[in-house]
Amino acid sequence: MTEERIIFRGRRVPPSWPATLEAAQARKTTVVDGIAYERVRFGDEEDDWGADRGPCHDCAAVKGEFHVPGCDVERCPACAGQAIGCDCERASEDG
Predict the structure, then answer these.
(1) What global pTM score does this model have?
(2) Which of 4, 8, 48, 56 could form a disulfide with 61 if both were Cys (CB 3.0 to 4.6 A apart)?
(3) What is the pLDDT of residues 35-75, one digit of tens each?
(4) How far apart are CA 66 and CA 37, in angstroms?
(5) What phi and psi, each to the nearest 5 degrees, are found at residue 37?
């Protein structure tokens, strides 16, 4: 059985993905090591992740949008490392 997919911003994603990305835009901050930081928007990273060339390869955010939590491109606002892999301590609601 094949999971249903749609094309969204040139990517094959589950039908719920546009709503998931929209919900991610409401999460403007994240708590790292007890301090609230504004999340890093796609295109504001220190390295070039291609925001001027198209949507994020992992979550389909476009330049200026927040990534979906868990996206492998999202940067930690405290250390600038990969948010899903850095050693910073995140609040439990941060996922």
Answers:
(1) 0.87
(2) 56
(3) 999 999 999 999 999 999 999 999 999 999 999 999 999 99
(4) 13
(5) -125, 150
